[in-house]
């Protein structure tokens, strides 16, 4: 890491589009969705306790549940640009309140107490974060889980 003290996993790249009428390259902002949080979740869980750098999660962080999952995986920070663009800065207080309530309901005294406790190094089946688990994933799918 050549001295890096922190890593952001995974910043979204805003990519251009092509306007077919004007035949021009145009900017097109496509905001993230919560489902996109799984890539940083996987890699943060795998990197926690393997690197000394601070790990920040970005892409797909929209809810308190997203924040909690990433903290359990081992994130030191989460970023939620798309959610803030959609819902405004009041969302920060809402998410903070919901995270605090979730922790209190389960008798956690701090974020530090739970951070990384579901990382690859901390779970019973550490390889679950590495293998593709295609059959298990396909078996879990049903028409009721479609969004």
Spell out the helices and strands N to C: EEEHEHEHHHH
What share of the residues lie within helices? 25-40%
Which CATH-level-2 architecture? Answer: Alpha-Beta Barrel
Largest sheet: 3 strands, parallel
* Rg, alpha carbons: 18 Å
Mean pLDDT: 87
Q: How do the strands line up in the largest sheet?
A: 1-4-5
How many DSSP-defined strands?
5
Shape: globular
Question: Low-confidence parts lasting 5 or more residues at pLDDT below 50?
Answer: none
Number of helical regions: 6
Distance between the termini: 39 Å
Q: Could you name the CATH topology?
A: TIM Barrel
Instruction: Name the beta content range.
Output: 5-15%
- SS-based structural class? alpha/beta
CATH homologous superfamily grouping: Aldolase class I
Task: Name the descriptors.
globular; alpha/beta; 5 strands; 147 residues; 37% helix
Condensed summary:
Helices cover 37% and strands 12% of the residues. It has 147 residues and is α/β, with parallel strands linked by helices.
Describe the protein in words:
This protein has 147 residues and is an alpha/beta fold. The chain has a single domain, classed as Aldolase class I (TIM Barrel), CATH 3.20.20. Helix content is 37%, strand content 12%. The chain is built from 6 helices and 5 strands; from the N terminus they run E-E-E-H-E-H-E-H-H-H-H. A 3-stranded parallel β-sheet has the order 1-4-5, covered by helices on one side. A two-stranded antiparallel sheet has the order 2-3. The longest helix is centred in the middle third of the chain and has 16 residues. It is globular, with a radius of gyration of 18 Å. The mean pLDDT is 87.
């Amino acid at each position: 890491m050549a001295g890096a003290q922190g890593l952001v996993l995974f910043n979204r790249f805003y990519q251009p589009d092509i306007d077919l009428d004007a035949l021009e390259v145009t900017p097109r902002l496509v905001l993230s969705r919560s489902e996109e949080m799984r890539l940083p979740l996987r890699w943060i869980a795998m990197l926690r306790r393997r690197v000394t750098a601070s790990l920040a999660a970005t892409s797909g962080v929209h809810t308190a549940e997203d924040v909690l999952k990433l903290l359990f995986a081992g994130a030191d920070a989460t970023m939620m640009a798309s959610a803030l663009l959609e819902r405004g800065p009041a969302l920060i207080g809402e998410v903070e309140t919901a995270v605090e309530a979730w922790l209190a309901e389960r008798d956690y005294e701090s974020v530090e107490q739970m951070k990384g406790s579901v990382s690859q190094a901390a779970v019973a089946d550490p390889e679950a974060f590495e293998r593709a688990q295609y059959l298990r994933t396909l078996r879990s799918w049903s028409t009721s889980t479609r969004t």
